[in-house]
């Protein structure tokens, strides 16, 4: 191939990645920009140090640059040359869920989706309140914001081993659920609104074994309620 063709190919690839990254920052529901493989590692919606002092740049560097990236690389290797290679990420997650012979594909695809959803569930500390629409739903579903915090924190603490705590919408109400390992509400009838990664890699560099302190720091300071509101099912 000539240098000119190489340049053109690189430009197209770079432009596609940039477009996907830009789209991700403005996504509503679902949170993940779809696109056929090769699945790319979406850009973070903020700088790696933006969540300090609650989550360090060091943690984000490893969590995003190593763990999240590894799931992307693994999935692309697993589906190379197979029919799934032409499917958007969400379709790969849903199509492989619950199938023992596709456990590796599911685990890596779901972890890509969960992590991108997690990054968007967080934002640098701000004093912005939850939009009225979701604040009202929190009140109607849990009784108070404090009760939501209690239930969400309990789910995050109660997930034995690796997994996720989620705020989801189902049947017109909001609920808190937890999932182990790579499992995700994406494969259920519930609509994910926010998530918290409680795998040890999410907090061990900053909090060691103190998951409770990590959970409290995020719940009190970093949840992105605008993202949750955007994910609400449309009436
Ligand atoms: Fe993680």
Structural features:
235 residues; mainly alpha; Helix Hairpins; minor pseudopilin epsh fold; 2 domains; 9 helices; 3 strands; 10% strand; disordered N terminus; binds fe (ii) ion
Number of β-strand runs: 3
| CATH architecture classification of the largest domain | 3-Layer(bab) Sandwich
- Helix-strand makeup class: mainly alpha
Instruction: Give the tally of structural domains.
Output: 2
Radius of gyration: 18 Å
Which fold name is given in CATH as the topology of the largest domain?
Answer: minor pseudopilin epsh fold
Strand order of the largest sheet: 2-1-3
Main beta sheet, described?
A: 3 strands, antiparallel
CATH class of the largest domain: Alpha Beta
Number of helices: 9
What hetero molecules are bound to the protein chains? fe (ii) ion
Strand fraction: 5-15%
Shape label: globular
At the fourth level of CATH, the homologous superfamily of the largest domain is: Iron/manganese superoxide dismutase, C-terminal domain
> Poorly predicted ranges (pLDDT <50, ≥5 residues)?
1-34
Q: Secondary-structure element sequence?
A: HHHHHHEEEHHH
Could you give the distance between the termini? Answer: 52 Å
In terms of quaternary structure, what is this? Answer: single chain
The helix content, as a percent range, equals 40-55%
Mean pLDDT: 87
């Amino acid at each position: 191939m000539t240098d000119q063709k190489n340049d053109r190919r690189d430009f197209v690839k770079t432009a596609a990645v940039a477009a996907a990254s830009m789209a991700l920052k403005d996504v509503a529901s679902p949170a993940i920009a779809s696109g056929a493989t090769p699945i790319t590692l979406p850009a973070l919606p903020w700088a790696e140090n933006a969540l300090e002092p609650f989550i360090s740049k060091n943690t984000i560097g490893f969590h995003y640059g190593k763990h999240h990236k590894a799931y992307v690389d693994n999935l692309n290797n697993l589906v190379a040359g197979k029919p799934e290679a032409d499917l958007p990420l969400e379709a790969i997650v849903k199509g492989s869920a619950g199938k023992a012979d596709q456990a590796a594909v599911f685990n890596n695809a779901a972890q890509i989706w969960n992590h991108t959803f997690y990054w968007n569930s967080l934002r640098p500390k701000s004093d912005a309140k939850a939009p009225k629409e979701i604040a009202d739903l929190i009140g109607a579903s849990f009784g108070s914001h404090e009760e939501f915090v209690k239930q969400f924190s309990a789910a995050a603490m109660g997930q034995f081993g690796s997994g996720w705590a989620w705020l989801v919408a189902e049947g017109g109400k909001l609920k808190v659920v937890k999932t182990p390992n790579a499992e995700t509400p994406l494969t259920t009838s519930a609509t994910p609104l926010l998530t918290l990664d409680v795998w040890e890699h999410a907090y061990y560099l900053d909090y060691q074994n103190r998951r409770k302190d990590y959970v409290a720091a995020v719940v009190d300071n970093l949840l992105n309620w605008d993202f949750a509101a955007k994910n609400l099912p449309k009436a």
